[in-house]
Structure formats: structure tokens, C-alpha cells
Amino acid sequence: MAKVLTSKEENYSQWYNDLVAKADLAENSAVRGCMVIKPYGYAIWEKMQAQLDKMFKETGHVNAYFPLFIPKSFFSKEAAHVEGFAKECAVVTHYRLKNDPDGKGIVVDPDAKLEEELIIRPTSETIIWSTYKNWIQSYRDLPILCNQWANVVRWEMRTRMFLRTTEFLWQEGHTAHETSQEALEETERMINIYATFAEDFMAIPVIKGAKSANERFAGALETYTIEALMQDGKALQSGTSHFLGQNFAKAFDVQYATRDGKLDYVWATSWGASTRLIGALIMAHSDNNGLVLPPKLAPYQVVIVPIYKNMEQLAEISVKVEEIMVKLRARGISVKYDNRDTQRPGWKFAEYELKGVPVRLAIGPRDLENGTVEVARRDTLEKSVEKLENIDQLVENLLEAIQKNIYSKAFKFRAENTTIVDSYDEFKKLLNTKGGFFLAHWDGTSETEIRIKEETKATIRCIPFDSVEEEGKCMVTGKPSHRRVIFALAY
Amino acid sequence: MAKVLTSKEENYSQWYNDLVAKADLAENSAVRGCMVIKPYGYAIWEKMQAQLDKMFKETGHVNAYFPLFIPKSFFSKEAAHVEGFAKECAVVTHYRLKNDPDGKGIVVDPDAKLEEELIIRPTSETIIWSTYKNWIQSYRDLPILCNQWANVVRWEMRTRMFLRTTEFLWQEGHTAHETSQEALEETERMINIYATFAEDFMAIPVIKGAKSANERFAGALETYTIEALMQDGKALQSGTSHFLGQNFAKAFDVQYATRDGKLDYVWATSWGASTRLIGALIMAHSDNNGLVLPPKLAPYQVVIVPIYKNMEQLAEISVKVEEIMVKLRARGISVKYDNRDTQRPGWKFAEYELKGVPVRLAIGPRDLENGTVEVARRDTLEKSVEKLENIDQLVENLLEAIQKNIYSKAFKFRAENTTIVDSYDEFKKLLNTKGGFFLAHWDGTSETEIRIKEETKATIRCIPFDSVEEEGKCMVTGKPSHRRVIFALAY
Lengths: 491, 491
What we know:
Two copies of one chain form a homodimer. With 491 residues, chain A is α+β, with helices and mostly antiparallel strands. Chain A contains 14 helices and 27 strands. In chain A, a hairpin with a 6-residue loop joins strand 1 and strand 2. The longest helix of chain A has 26 residues. Chains A and B meet through strand 2, helix 2, strand 3, strand 4 and helix 3 of A and strand 2, helix 2, strand 3, strand 4 and helix 3 of B.
């Protein structure tokens, strides 16, 4: 088999780019920073969407759709918010093209200039809260628990496929509540949903925690995050849930009649996860042979490759394969039969390894005679010959085992790459040699946080929810600290 | 019950607007021509999406995602295409905002002007064919059968919720084929899928046919359409499928190595259906009490309303309702129990009539004693008292009956409002008195078609696939014609 990927060890970044391309996940488009999500990559996104959507609906949320465009003036209404997003906004200024009077193709029609420019949503708090104003009069109208699946645009200077693109797909939940307490509970509920999704479906262990003030969402009082560790020792923020307080309600004057007949501003949350998750999925599990997909998110969980010398053999094998597929599908297992005669089995094996299909079955004439099939699992690359009789049960068990094993492997990797440090020198040394998560004391000030970022590029990923109260000294300033926080280099 | 809708007879257009608002389907946003699709309206769209997506996948299509932005120069590459869309394009010219140097909020940063303007996609042929160029080398790479679910923007001067909005949601399929024949078959396959969806799920009978040259999609050699008749006698184009020939392949230089070793341009189709379908659904079936939804697309098919005087009664009823819900759900029927104590039963009845819930069950203390339940169907407004024993079977049958009845009613309406005309005077008279579809002879020229449109506002909706060969004379010019075509006023 020809080596198609740069190895991780040689050049991690190039390995990632190669993998995205060779596994047919995505490619750069003709538009700077925008990607084309190819069918195989999009199929993974559809699996993610279906599961997240189910979890949102089970917790009482409904979907809706709000405009792509945000009037510029809306943007200015929440001061921190505009500060956070103004520098990366795509702006629509005109609404018509016309033939170039000089006869050279088409030009923007200067007569079709908008009175007020429209921003392509980088996130939808402002347009949604301007809408909620109409929906909310009294406590009876609360809570509002809306989510939308949408595209958003942030004009990033440096882009990486899935991780940071100018346009990306995501979901954004926006909820409105009577009390601060209720909104905080919602903020926590949603970060828990993201954590469950990451761990149980993506097979990626995550650390839940709160962002430091510096790293909070623009306009939020609290940002909760789930942080995952990639195989190169860098962190990837994989989902965030924001407690917005009354900031947006005040900016858009959304008041409600309370139960005791007063007027108060509504409490808000917002929370989102994006196609970035596909980047996390790739970087957490894959190897030098290609993608390793957790069975629960694989576009197809099993691929069957026939091994044959002539068309009669193929026909006989196909009859048997049909039986196997019926049995697998009856168990809810998705399966693809690749009977293309244009490619050899070896080529197909490499192709499905690249694409991370969890289980491969290969079946040839000898297998037909013996009532057997060759079973290969993608995560360990182990092969065995198994009886066809209970193959459906065996594959079902194997898929469960793979899902667990991928998680365990990632969990072990994270454990091995989480370091408790007490000195800034040690931190700086290990950050660039070992990498990973660092548990360190910090004095709680933005100054120190910024200094560390400037000197090392590391950031506080989060203040973990489960961090233990512990008296210590900030590794930089020596000032007192009551718990360790997580530092890491991050995507 | 207070009348909440303007009646159809009084003012059809106002009735429609009232209904969209009162049934909580959508509302205008702060952005001109853009709507907010509210949760109940969006739930209908989700039902439509799920079914269409299933039908696309069953016919071998896969989903992908292409950029929102199209470089202006791409747009000019297919002459008819740019001609068709240039006048309604939203244009991004800048990528950054900054603080106003005069201290008045934020302004567009003049230093962040794009070298080449970006168009927000009004449809994606150009960006997709620029991508397909990389995907296609030989006949082995064909066919490509991609679909995308996306938002698009067309800067319309006059907008109506769902029917014509500046931004709307849709799906657009874009396929690439070896031969003209194969592409034509695909074009036909997809218009058939839309027709099946309209008739079997939306319960709307449609006429399948080809558009005249004038009404074709910008860049297409053939446009197939499904045309539905609304209750005010106007037509609504509900889905289109385009045979694009080699136009886009030529514009983007997409050639492939043929089976006999030559180079040829690839053949293309595209096809789309949008949130406009929700407008069709409303206008085809609803009445002066509100929406009438076909059970197959209703967000919930059954609502249960308890009738009680005190909380003990409510508790007893709720136990029984729980049993009913379990039985209904076991049959795949979606059901909502509205046990809110803040609203009276009468208010709830009106609410669910407005929202078009196909079946309403009401259950009170006497029903508990008698083992009965009151069953009301939304389409006919008939009520009956039924035994609780086999209520699940009864409701399942009723939902099927409602689905059929709504279709039959629409079919009968269309039959009664389809007129064969042979004189232009008769046509003009009936167009404004009776309305509906008109089967008339036409000489096949754009001149005559344009003249009719200018004089009457009626357009040729389609040349029906099943039109009978018949010698006749054009109703306007008297020139020979070989088949009748469908004229109507249209949305």
C-alpha cells in the first residue's frame, strides 16, 4: 500500500491537511477561507446534527430560523459584543449588480447602495433578542428555548479546514428565562449535553469548566466550555455555553411582567457547537493510516469487500453478502457493500482505512466454503477469521468494543499528557517539549493571564468544575490561589 | 370563539397574512424582506426536509455543503445565468467594522475593502461547477449526485412571507452526468420526486410539465415544474428541476475523459424546493378557522385537551391520557397533551384549530365514567364520541382518512377550477372572474406569451407532460398549435 499521508510524527499539521483531503472530508473553495464540505465529511456532520438535535429536543428545545443579516445598528447595542466581533464581519453594502458601462462584465450598481449596511451574522444574539422583544410580555411567555442550525461568517485571517473557517456551520441555542438561577441552570444543562455528546458519541473525554474573564464570549457574564486534548498536545475548545445575564435584554429592552406584577429584564443564555467538532474528531483519534471514526458517528459502520477472481465468484459472494447485510441492518447497523469491479481489494482496504470505517468484512471463495468471513477492526487494525453464523451479533459487539476502546485510548492519552506544575520555568519547558494540559495555580488576574499568553502562547482553557479547593501560589506571581486551572496551547 | 382571522372571502391576502401570524408560523424581521420562521412553522419545514431528504437518498443522492459566497467573476461566466440573477444580488464589499472616528458608534472600515466583491448565493450553480471541475476527470467520476440544504438570498422588491422572501431556505441538487440522456432522466426523476412529495405528503395535486422558454431557469435548456392551484385560483410553482445541458460545464471548463478515450463536457441538472412549500401548504388547504395540515406533515398529529373542574379531576384524566399517549406513540403517532391550567378548554380548541392539528381528543370526567373520548377532526370539523378501547386504531384510521380527504378536496377544487378555453376574450373574462387553470392553445412563440402576460398578467405555467396531441389554433393569433398549455395567474 502506498503511503498517502504525511506521518503525524513528521509533520502533524500536514498530516491533518492530508487526511482532510484524502479521506474526502473537505477542500478549500475558490472563496478565501471558505471550505467545501464534501459528501463524506458532511455525512459525519449529519450524524452529529441528528444526535445533538435529539438531545436538544429531549430537553425541551425547539428549532427556529432567524435572518442571516443583522442591521449594523443592532450590533452596536451591546458594547462588549460589538467589540468582540466588529473586526471580523462580512458587510453587505449593495443589493444589485449591473452591466459594466465600459462593457467589461458586471459591476456593483452604485445606485443600489443600502441605507444601512447589513452584517452577515457571526452569531445571532442581536437579531434574536430584537425578535424576542416581540415574543415576551409576561412570565407566562417564559422560558423560550430556541435553537437554530445555521451558517455563520467570521472573517478570520488564518484559516484551517474545520477548525477555523470564514464560513462555518453550527447550531446556536438562545434561551430566555425569568430568573438568573434558571438561566444559570440552563447554561450548565447545555454544557453537560455537549460533554455527554463529546464523550459518549465522539469518544473524546472532555474537561468541563468556566472560562476566565479574558476568554469569555463577547457579552457574556460566564462562559462554560468543554476542552478536549488533541494528539499533538494542543487543546481544542469543543462547545461553549454562555450565561448572558440581562445584557442582551437590556440592549434590546426586553422586559417582562414578573409573577409579582413588576417589570424586570429577561435573563439569557446562548450555546453553540460547530463543524469544528469534525476537526476535533479527526485530531483526537486518527492515525497514519487515516481516519479512525467512533462507530456512533461513522457514515457507515461496516464495509464489505468481496475477494473474487471471476464474475461467477462475485455473484456467489454477493448472495451471501446480501444475507449478511439484511442481518446487520436488522440490528440497526449501517453497512456498505463495495462490489465495484474497477478497483482491487487492496485498494479498497486502504480506502476504507483512510475513511475510518470501523469494521471491514472481507469475503472470498474459501470463506464461502468454510462459512467464514475475515473481520478487520479499524481502531487496532486487528484481523481475525470468524464464523458467518453469528456475524451480526459479533459485529454489534465489536462496534461497541471499538467505541469504548477509542474513548479509553483518548482518555489514557489525556491522563498521560496532563501535568501538575508548580513553577513557571517548568511549565514553559514542558509546554514545548511534552505539551498537553497543565494544572497550575494562577492568581486570578487578567494581567497574569495575558502575560503568560504573551510569553508562552498558552491560555487558560478553563477553571474546571471539578477542581479541588487547594491552597497554593500562582506559578508566575506567587500570589495566593485557591484552585488549579488548566493551561494549554490551543487551536 | 372570537374571530381571529380575516375571512378568505373578504380578503384572501389578509387572511393569509393573519394565518401566518396567528398560527405562529413566521413573522417579519427587522431586516427588510427577511422573515423569522417561528418554531411551529419551522417544525413543518423539518417534517418536509426529513421526507424529501429520505427520497433524495433513496435515489442515490448525498448531501454536501458549498460556500455562501460566490466571487463576482464566477457569476459572469454563464451569460444567461448572470442576466437572470444580477438584479437581485446582495453584495459583500467589506470584511471589517471599526469605531467611528467621529465617535458615533461603528462604521464600515474603508481599509477593509475586498479586492473582488462576493455575492451571497442566490443559487449555487457557479460555485458548485467551479468545484466539480476538481472532482471530475473521467467517466469513472460520474455521475455526481449532490444535494445541499442551505439558505439563499434574492433581493426581491415585493416580499410575502414564505412565498417570496429576500432570504429563504431550500435544498438545491446539482448533478453531473456522462450523457445528455442520463441528465434528462435525472431531471425527470427529480420532478417526479417533487410531484410525489406534493401529492402524497402535502396532499396537493400538481401538474407536471415543462416551462416555456421565457419561464426557464437562467442558464437551463429545459425547466420542469410542478404547478399547484391555490384556493384563490392562482397557481403556485412548487418545485423545479432543470436540465442545464453543457452550459455550466462549458462556463467552468469541466471536461471528462469519455469511455472511448475522448474529451467531452459534462452534462448537468439542478433542482430545488424551498420554504415556499409552506406557503403552498397554507393556501391549498386552510380555512377561516385556521391551518389545515395534512397528518403526514403536522408537527403533532393529535392534541389531547382535558376538561376538568378541579385538580383531582385533572389528575384522574391525566392517568388515562398517559395510557392513550403510550398506545398512540406505539403506532408512530405524534401527540401533544395540553394540560396547561392557564387556559380554558375553549381557548385551547380554537388554538389547535388555528394551528391545524389534524385530530383533537377531549376527555372529561363523564368520559372517564363511560370509557369514552370526544374526537374532533380538523379537516371537516366533525366531532363524535368514541369508545376509548380501540382509540389508537381509530385515530390511525382517522389520520389516513384525513390525509386522503384533504387531497380529494384539493383535487376536486382543481378539477372545478380548470377550464378549457378557445377564445382569448373568454380567457380574459374568466381569468378575472373564475380564475384557476386554463387549458388553451398557444402558437409556441415568446411574442404571444409576452403579449398575454402584458395584457392579462397570466403566464404559461407549463406545457403538461400528459397533454394530449390535438390540432388547434392559438387563442390569440389563430396560428396552428398541437397541444394545449396551462395558463394561470401565479404567485
